[in-house]
């Protein structure tokens, strides 16, 4: 603890210094912005699910616009939403609609949907499960089914690995599967990576992951015989999916607008998005609103 | 400038010279002032940082009770932790934190004291050449590495030996045991070395065996130091976040046994802080957990001071 507090003090001291430096640099950059080339500072913070895509797209964007200083950070959807609401960052990345998060004034923010992510239950391979009914998934996560043999698997205890409360992935999963029922208290992990590793190694484990985190070490589960694939998400046959949002507040500056436009361009949507395991927003045949109502495009 | 002034004055009158010298600060005095000023400034900044951190955490931490009107009693004794639904009983985390801390200290202390005795009394030479570097190495390993080893080795091991999922207090205890061992050992070594040589010589001269001397004289007179070492180790265990979070399972439920997933104050903080919104109950509740951590570390520090004072009195007697 002693070390920790010393470290914290150090960080506080350094950040004081950085604040000073930051002021100096921002004043110089505002001078140079009078030239025609796109310049400025764009900070995108939030969702760790969106972070890899945003970081890669950001790097490509910066290669073309060398005067723009673009930073992408994680921190979680909650951080992204609250930071953009506070005006501390230009873009708040989120897995969930701002309307779904208590304490966020969604009408003050502008939503830019940049990709779609499908999620599916994953189980440890030993459990012998490949398909479940939606009702069974709900019963497992609410604690009504506790052994795999009840749903046609091995005689093995079910170990539920949840995501942290407030996580965007968890919110998406619970909206689509539990529909208001509350999940049984269980293990909570704070990242997709941790869930992936733990489900792969823990006998009887079940959790849920974004499609891009599937590996051959774990079993992705079909629900009602619908397989978790991009195509099934695009026509809403597969119900567990969410948008990746980039939220801005008020009128974003030129550099931010240009970056958001780039995110929506074919260059990103048709190659980068797909390469990195996301689903292109252009391919979606349905639209979902903040209340979860799905309409055909 | 100052020197030319001085020379001028010197030329003017010899009798005035001494009065001028006495009435004006010399170069050395001014350096003295400068040095003093710099150190006061540094101290001031440090005090400011510490005070503002205390104020910040406290003001954020009590918002749960002042803004969200959760009663302190319910917060400390409630067992239902679901901040999104407005339920914030922190007892499972408090119990979890204390359980892993005490368990780790209880397991680590005998090993630490044994190692320290070996290093100071039994084989000081080997101790300095072999064990000292090993212990220093253990201190330097970052906690995420301990956590990763815990996740890759300890958790599967516990799963095969004691059953369950392998995540739980027992795995956390094991990881923390390795993490606090070097802290406790090196501080115990210091306190054993600080035992006056004549204590040992007198005991041996009276015919006590080596074991009697170690157990009844050296350990006895080093007890305050060893206790301080244990408390420092506990403070480290209590505040450790990452490694514990990776192996304890983070289930906000009252720990019923050592092998089912539990959670600690720190593990809840690290898992939850990114997904909460400033100023809402889930966020404030996490600050309250941080406040408990802060108060506990102040308590540990105070305890160390009390023990150190008592120890001094003993030596004087």
From TrEMBL, chain A:
Q: What PROSITE patterns would the database entry show?
A: PROKAR_LIPOPROTEIN
Signal peptide: which range, if any?
1-24
Q: Where in the cell is it found?
A: Cell membrane
Does the UniProt entry include the keyword Signal?
yes
Task: Report membrane topology.
Answer: Lipid-anchor
Which domain of life does the protein's organism represent? Bacteria
Its chief place of residence is membrane
Q: Where is the PBP domain?
A: 33-264
Show the NCBIfam families listed in the entry: ptsS_2
UniProt record similarity statement: Belongs to the PstS family.
Under PANTHER family, the record lists: PERIPLASMIC PHOSPHATE BINDING COMPONENT OF PHOSPHATE ABC TRANSPORTER, PHOSPHATE-BINDING PROTEIN PSTS 1
Q: What does this protein do?
A: Involved in the system for phosphate transport across the cytoplasmic membrane. Part of the ABC transporter complex PstSACB involved in phosphate import.
Q: What is this protein called?
A: Phosphate-binding protein
Automatic annotation (TrEMBL), chain B:
The record, for InterPro entries, names:
MetI-like (IPR000515), MetI-like_sf (IPR035906), Phosphate_PstC (IPR011864), Phosphate_Transport_Permease (IPR051124)
Query: Where does the record place the ABC transmembrane type-1 domain?
Result: 94-304
Coiled-coil-forming residues are none
Q: Where in the cell is it found?
A: Cell membrane
Q: Which UniProt keywords apply?
A: Cell membrane, Membrane, Phosphate transport, Transmembrane, Transmembrane helix, Transport
Q: Which PROSITE patterns match?
A: ABC_TM1 (PS50928)
- Membrane-protein topology: Multi-pass membrane protein
Q: Which residue ranges traverse the bilayer?
A: 37-57, 90-113, 134-158, 164-184, 226-248, 285-308
Any Pfam family hit: BPD_transp_1
UniProt entry tagged with the keyword Cell division: no
Role summary:
Part of the binding-protein-dependent transport system for phosphate; probably responsible for the translocation of the substrate across the membrane.
Name the family.
Belongs to the binding-protein-dependent transport system permease family. CysTW subfamily.
Do you know which PANTHER family this protein is assigned to?
A: ABC TRANSPORTER PERMEASE PROTEIN YQGH-RELATED, PHOSPHATE TRANSPORT SYSTEM PERMEASE PROTEIN PST
Designated name of the protein = Phosphate transport system permease protein
Which organism's genome codes for this protein? Levilactobacillus angrenensis
In the UniProt record, the gene name given for this protein reads pstC
């Amino acid at each position: 603890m002693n070390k920790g507090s010393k470290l914290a003090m150090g960080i506080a001291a350094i950040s004081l210094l950085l604040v000073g430096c930051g002021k100096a640099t921002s004043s110089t950059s505002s001078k140079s912005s009078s030239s025609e080339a796109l310049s400025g500072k764009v900070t995108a913070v939030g969702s760790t699910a969106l972070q890899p895509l945003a970081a890669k797209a950001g790097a490509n964007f910066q290669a073309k616009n060398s005067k723009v200083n673009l930073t992408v950070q994680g921190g979680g959807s909650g951080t992204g939403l609250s930071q953009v609401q506070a005006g501390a960052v230009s873009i708040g990345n989120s897995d969930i609609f701002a309307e779904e998060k208590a304490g966020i004034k969604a009408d003050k923010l502008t939503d830019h949907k940049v990709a779609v992510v499908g999620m599916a239950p994953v189980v440890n391979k030993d459990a012998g499960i490949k398909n479940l009914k939606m009702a069974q998934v709900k019963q497992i996560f609410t604690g009504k089914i506790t052994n795999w043999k009840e749903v046609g698997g091995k005689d093995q205890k079910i170990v539920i690995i949840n995501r942290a409360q407030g996580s965007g992935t968890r919110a998406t999963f619970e909206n689509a599967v539990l529909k208001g029922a509350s999940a049984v208290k269980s293990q909570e992990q704070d990242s997709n990576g941790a869930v992936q590793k733990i489900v792969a190694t823990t006998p009887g484990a079940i959790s849920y992951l974004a499609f891009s985190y599937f590996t051959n070490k774990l079993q992705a589960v079909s629900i009602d015989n619908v397989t978790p694939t991009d195509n099934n998400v695009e026509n809403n046959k597969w119900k567990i999916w969410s948008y990746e949002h980039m939220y801005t507040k008020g009128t974003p500056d030129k550099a931010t607008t240009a970056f958001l436009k780039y995110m929506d361009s074919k260059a990103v949507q048709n190659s980068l998005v797909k390469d990195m395991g996301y689903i292109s927003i252009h391919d979606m045949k349905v639209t979902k609103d903040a209340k979860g109502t799905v309409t055909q495009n | 400038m100052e020197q030319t002034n001085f020379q001028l004055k010197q030329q003017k009158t010899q009798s005035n010279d001494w009065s001028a010298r006495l009435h004006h600060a010399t170069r050395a005095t001014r350096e003295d002032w400068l040095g003093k000023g710099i150190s006061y400034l540094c101290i001031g900044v440090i005090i400011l940082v510490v005070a503002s951190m205390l104020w910040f955490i406290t003001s954020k931490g009590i918002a749960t009770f002042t803004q969200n009107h959760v009663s302190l009693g319910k917060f400390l004794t409630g067992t239902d932790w679901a901040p999104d639904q407005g339920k914030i009983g922190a007892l499972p985390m408090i119990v979890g934190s204390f359980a892993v801390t005490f368990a780790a200290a209880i397991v680590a202390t005998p090993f630490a004291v044994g190692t320290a005795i070996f290093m100071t009394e039994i084989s000081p030479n080997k101790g300095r050449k072999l064990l000292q570097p090993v212990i220093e190495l253990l201190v330097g390993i970052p906690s995420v590495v301990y956590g990763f080893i815990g996740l890759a080795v300890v958790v599967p091991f516990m799963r095969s030996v004691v059953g369950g999922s392998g995540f739980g207090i027992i795995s956390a205890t094991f990881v923390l045991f390795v993490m606090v061992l070097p802290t406790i050992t090196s501080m115990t070594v210091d306190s054993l070395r600080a035992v006056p040589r004549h204590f040992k010589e007198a005991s041996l001269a009276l015919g006590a065996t080596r074991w009697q001397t170690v157990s009844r004289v050296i350990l006895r007179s080093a007890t305050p130091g060893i206790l301080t070492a244990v408390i420092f180790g506990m403070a480290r265990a209590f505040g450790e976040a990452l490694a514990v979070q990776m192996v304890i399972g983070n289930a906000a439920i009252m720990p019923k046994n050592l092998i089912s997933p539990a959670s600690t104050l720190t593990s809840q903080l690290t898992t939850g802080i990114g997904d909460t919104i400033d100023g809402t109950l889930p966020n404030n509740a996490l600050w309250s957990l941080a406040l408990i951590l802060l108060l506990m570390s102040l308590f540990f520090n105070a305890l160390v001071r009390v023990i150190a004072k008592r120890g001094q009195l003993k030596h004087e007697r």
